[in-house]
Amino acid sequence: MSEGIKAASFDIIAVSDADCQPASKNWLATMQSYIRGETQIGLGYSPYEAEQGFLNLFIRFETIYTAIQYFSFALAGMPYMGVGRNLIYRKSLFHQAGGFHKHTHIASGDDDLFVNAVANNSNTKIILNPKAFVLSQPKVSWRGYYYQKSRHLTTATSYRPMHQLLLGALAASHAGHYLLALALLLSGRMIVITLFIYVVRIVVVVWTYRRTLQHLQEPALTKWIPLLDAAYILYYFAFAPTLVNGKKIPWK
């Protein structure tokens, strides 16, 4: 990556992966149009292609859930990551930041850790134009997906402390909702209140996702949101050890 950026003739760098496919012929033109004035970073979106099976549903949901987080943080003036499958920035900014030297010891990080280090409220924009989407090939086995996400998550412990705190609080509130509800239902106490709170929350969640999924070209996922939102709790437990021990995951 560093050698390629060094050899680039011009100042705007667009990056993607070898197994990705732009959603339109206007991908580069659309992405580049956002790099104007103070804007030096454009955070693109890269959905996974739809296939059969629950694994594919979950991968697409997790991708959208992550996108909602980093887009929302950016809109709130706290950009913390981007995805290397669809990212654009100025070469001059790359050099000013010293390239990737701060995280060359991590297998991942050329996207999210770079953005985490250099992005701010004034130099970063999100790019949600469907013409700028880049489609990616999803994993086809749970083992492959687990390995991929474990490697990706090794970067999270290198985020800025405030970002780690806010993302941790978000995960805790999500998991806490289901775990406390389950505990109350098993104890036989406050069953009606517990069910009422669940229904209110899931209605708000589905309504919010419905609008988001339409914008992100994934309306078919809407009916699966109640199941996927609950199943995501298993994601937290599955990858918690990776975040806790900080073990480096090598490339295969």
Q: Tell the overall outline.
A: globular
Largest sheet: 4 strands, mixed
Structural class: alpha+beta
Classify the fold: give the CATH topology: Spore Coat Polysaccharide Biosynthesis Protein SpsA, Chain A
Q: Mean pLDDT, nearest integer?
A: 91
Largest sheet, order of strands side by side? 1-4-3-5
Task: Evaluate the radius of gyration.
Answer: 19 Å
Integer count of domains: 1
Which architecture does the CATH hierarchy give at level 2?
Answer: Alpha-Beta Complex
Stretches where pLDDT is under 50 for at least 5 consecutive residues are none
Portion of residues in beta strands equals: 5-15%
The helix-strand sequence is HEEHEHEHHEEHHHH
N- to C-terminal separation?
Answer: 17 Å
**Total E-strand runs:** 6
Query: If helices are DSSP runs of H or I spanning 4 or more residues, what is the number of helices?
Result: 9
